[in-house]
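Field reference: sequence -> structure
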Amino acid sequence: MSNLTKRIITALILVGIALGTAYLGLEYFIYLTHFFVFLLQIELARMFFKDENRILRWPFLFATFITTLMYNYLPFYFTPFLFLLIPTMLSLLLVGLSDRSNEDILKISGLFSLGFVYVGLLPSLTTKILMVQDGPYWMLVCLAVVFSGDVGAYFVGSRFGKKKVLPQVSPNKSWEGAIGGLVCSTLTSVFVGQYFIPETSVIALLLSGCLASLLAQSGDFFESLIKRIAGQKDSSSFLPGHGGFLDRFDGLIFAIPVYYYLSLY
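Structure field:
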């Protein structure tokens, strides 16, 4: 079976699961999203903490998933307590790693802090956006923008791509593909946004689509950098043909804040 066939079959299964869960109700779709976010956190924990640091995966998963739940379900005035979680975890790490070198302690503390934001705070917006007015529509717009940008970048890059953006990080991505993805994402934001949320101005959709595309592509590069440092081709093998959930949703993690905050205003 070719890799393209695997990608198509996996994508159809994911879409079927998403549609079936959405049919049951928004509450169940939110639970499914929580599950996907948890899988992102597992993948990053496995890339960050290996060998003698494997035991650190458990406090990392606890901190990031609790962050997601707290940010989604606690009232706004509890938010400051959320940001106390990371210094608390770092303080416990300093005590627990007292036998390590200063360089190891600093590296592990940095990974915890980065992971707290990358797979804790940012992905929590993928469920939080579903809880606001017209949130599911905004989520659809964001998904359409990110995935259309991926498709546009792939086809334009494979046909016209010559000048590489960051070959040391992602050797296959070109400036031509990046521009193609930007154009596709921006147009998708306008057309899909006007269809689902017609009261939104075209200018707002145009600017948000452009910004979301730039952020999504940056998220793709950022995840590629993490994989290279971890010495992995994919974040996991959870999704045949795609790699892992982090491989599939790296752009969405960076782009979702744009449409979450747009949905509030």
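Note: The two ends are 47 Å apart (CA to CA).
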